[in-house]
Amino acid sequence: MLITVSPIYMKNYCGLVVAFALMAAASIFSCKKDKFRQPSAENVRLSIDSLTMTQFYALRIYVSWNMPDGYVLDPNVPTDKKASEHGICYNYTGNPTISDFKKKEYAGNAPDYVSLYLPESFRTIYFRVYVIINDIPYYSSQKSISTSGLRDPWEKELISGDFFDIREVVYDDNYGFAILGSVHTTDSPDSCWARLIKVDGEGNIQWSKDYRDHSYYQPYQLLKTRDGYAIISGRKDAAEGDILITKINASGVQVNRFVLDNAVNTLKGVYENSGQQLVLYTTKQHKNESSGAIWTWILDWPDQAVGEINYNVYDDFYQGGEAKKSIGNPEGWTCIRYIHIGSILNVTHYGADNHYKWNHEIESNEFGPKSGTMAGVNIRLNIQKNPVVLTYATFTPRRSISSLAVLDANTGRLLWQGFIYDPTFSIRSNGRTMATDFCQDIDGNYYSTGTSQSVDSNRVSRFIFKHNAEGRAQWYYRVSETDAITRKNVHSILITPEKMIYLFGTQKPEGASEANTRLYIFRAKE
C-alpha cells in the first residue's frame, strides 16, 4: 500500500527541522562562548643552577603559563580567577601527578621558574609542572633528568646476641673492616667489655673476639697498627683515670696489654710512630678545674716499657672532653671543647711539645639567623694534615643543621666551611640534620653521613652528603628505608680507593629490647 504525505505537512515538518537546527547551533555557540579554556605550559625546559648561599646544586624548571582569559597565576591578587597553587610534581616511574612528590610555589610575583633541590642520586627523576585552578590540576608535558651520586646499593644486617654499641670502625687491608664495640648483657648493664669484629667487603664476618680484661673499662678508640690493632679503653668512672691499651694481632688474638695510670684521666691523641711504638698525649685536670698537666708518653711493645717524653702545665684553659673529639699526630694534638654555654665551639691545638699553638671559634649564628646550641661531633686530619671538624647547631629540638669546617694546621685559620642538610627542606633550619661522621677519599673529596628528619614528620632517614676538596657541595643521597618504624643510627662512614662507600650503624625495632639490637652495613658505589 502506497502512503502519500501532503505538501502542507511536509512544509511544516521541514520548518520544524530547521528551527531545531538553529536552536542547537545557538546552544552550541553559547556553550563554546562560556566554556573554560584550560591553561597550558609553554617553553618548558630544565636547567641546573648553583645557589651561591648554600653552594648546592638545584634543579629549575622554566615555564611560561598561558592562563585562561581573566585568570592569573599570582595567588595574592584579589580576584576569584586565580590559581590556588602551582609547582613541580615528580616521581621515579613516569607521568607524575600531585599525588606523588611535589614542591609547591606560592611566590607573589609568579616567577617563570620553579626550583627543586635534588632529593636523591643516580636515579632518573620525572617532572611535570602543574597549576591548580578551581580544585582541578593541569599539567605540562613530562621532563626527566638523571642525577649523579650512588648506585648498586645493598645492606646487610648482623645480629648481636648482646647489646652492642659501636665505638669505632677502621679500614683494613683487602677491602675489610674492623668494628670496635662496647658490649654488655641486659642483666648486667653496669659492666662492659670490648668486642672486635672483622668483616670483609661483602659484609661477611671473618672473626669476632671479646676482650674482658676488666669489666669496668669502657672501650672508645681503635687504632690500626702495622701488625694488628690497639684498643684504647678508659675507666667508666672518670675519677679513676686509668687508660687500658690492649694489643691485638691481625687474627684478633690478644698479645699484650698495658694500663697507664700515672695521674692520667683524659687521652687527647694517639698514633703509631715509625718504630711501631704508640705515642699518647694525655691530660690530668687539677681539682680547681682551671689548670692541669699535659704528658706525652711512648709505649714500646712487647716489653711494655713506657716513658714520659714531654710534660707541660696549662693554666686557665680547661681541656675537658671525650677522646673521640680530639686527634693526635707527630705534629701535636687538636681537640674540641665548649665555651659560652654551648653557643660557641672552640677548637684548640697544642704542638708536639704540649705548648699551646692556636684556637679557633665556631659560632652557632654562622649556621642561621639566631644563636643555638653547638655540638662537636668529630675531628679528623685530612690528607693535607689540616684538622677537619664536624659540628651541628641546634635551634629547637627539631631544627638543626650540620657543617664541616677545615682549619689551617699552622694558624687555625678557617679555610672553608660547608653546610650539611637535607636539600628537600625549604630553608636551612626547616628540619633536623644530625651529622655523625665523615671521611675523605684519595682525591680529597669529603663524605658526611647522619640522619635527617623534617619538622612535620616522625620518619628519620639516613643520608650521605658529598663536598669536593674545595668545600663545594656535590650531591645529597637519601638511603631508602624499607621499614618506617625501625630507626637506624649511623655511626661511621668509610670509602675505599675504588670509591665504594660503606655505612656502619645499629638498629633496634621500636618496642624491642636491647638484646635485639643489630649491626648493619650499607654499601654503594659512586
What descriptors fit this protein?
4-stranded antiparallel β-sheet; Immunoglobulin-like; mainly beta; 5-stranded antiparallel β-sheet
Short description:
The chain has about 525 residues and is mostly beta strands. Helices cover about 5% and strands about 55% of the residues.
Mean pLDDT comes to: 77
**CATH class assignment of the domain at 45-147:** Mainly Beta
Mind telling me which CATH architecture of the domain at 45-147 this is? Answer: Sandwich
What is the percent of helical residues? under 10%
Fraction of residues in β-strands = over 45%
Unreliable parts: 1-5, 26-34, 49-56, 316-324
Quaternary organisation of the protein chains: single chain
Shape: elongated
Largest sheet: 5 strands, antiparallel
Q: Quickly give the structural class.
A: mainly beta
DSSP helical segment count:
1
Terminus-to-terminus distance: 91 Å
- Looking at the structure, the CATH topology of the domain at 45-147 is Immunoglobulin-like
What radius of gyration results from the CA coordinates?
A: 32 Å
- Overall number of strands: 36
> Could you state the CATH homologous superfamily of the domain at 45-147?
Immunoglobulins
Organism: Chitinophaga eiseniae
Protein name: PQQ-like domain-containing protein
